[in-house]
Specification:
Blueprint: H1 15-39, H2 46-63, E1 81-82, E2 92-96, E3 100-103, E4 106-110, E5 122-123, E6 126-127, H3 128-147, E7 156-161, H4 167-178, E8 184-188, E9 190-191
Parallel strand pairs: 1-9, 2-7, 7-8
Antiparallel strand pairs: 2-3, 3-4, 5-6
Length: 194
């Protein structure tokens, strides 16, 4: 048989050339798939996300400033105004209104007109019902402090009082608090606008 002449523009490929072309196509296909796979997220990196959430949480906690002492707004109590910049701390709170003495917003004693303590509630300068309530609060704080070193007993008390409190009543309240190991007094005031 005679060889047929090749058509112009076409040449025959050897078996080696065909193998090389197949190899190149396979390699190109493999590289294309690898490039596409790099863009995909096959699994979620939870560690990086937890780090990010922790940083956001710390930022929010630091930027959120709220006072830990709550004062119930009423006509009975009008705290004095001050220019202090200190922030309140979470402590035992004694509230003295013209009608009541409260410990952590629970009524412990009803006052007589003129902000006077009933005689049967007094033992010298010690106010009996206030003394009992503070003993319970101090026991609770000490119990927590024994089990949690991050919450030590700092012997602090916040006094939220009306600006009209007579000195002898304030003195008796502070004396009673001092008899219950609450010797660091903080007076809650309203910050004066500049």
């Amino acid at each position: 048989m005679a060889a047929t002449p090749a058509k112009p523009g076409h040449h025959e490929l050897s078996e080696d050339d065909i193998q090389r072309m197949r190899f190149r196509k396979a390699m190109a296909r493999k590289k294309r798939k690898e490039r596409e796979a790099e863009g995909e997220i096959k699994e979620l990196n939870i560690t990086a996300m937890m780090d990010m959430m922790t940083i956001i949480l710390v930022f929010l906690i630091k930027s959120y400033s709220a006072s830990s002492v709550t004062v119930t707004a009423s006509e009975d109590i009008r705290p004095p105004v001050s220019t202090t910049r200190l922030t309140p701390k979470d402590t035992v709170a004694i509230t003295v209104t013209p009608r009541f003495i409260l410990v952590n917003d629970k009524k412990k004693l009803e006052l007589l007109p003129g902000m006077k303590v009933p005689e049967q509630a007094m033992a010298g300068k010690l106010i009996g019902p206030l003394d009992e309530a503070l003993k319970k609060e101090v026991e609770k704080i000490k119990y927590i402090a024994e089990r949690n070193p991050a919450a030590p007993f700092l012997k602090e008390v916040s006094v939220i009082g009306d600006k009209r409190i007579p000195y002898d009543l304030l003195s008796a309240v502070l004396y009673t608090a001092g008899q219950n190991e609450l010797e660091n007094f903080r007076f809650v005031v309203i910050a004066k606008d500049d």
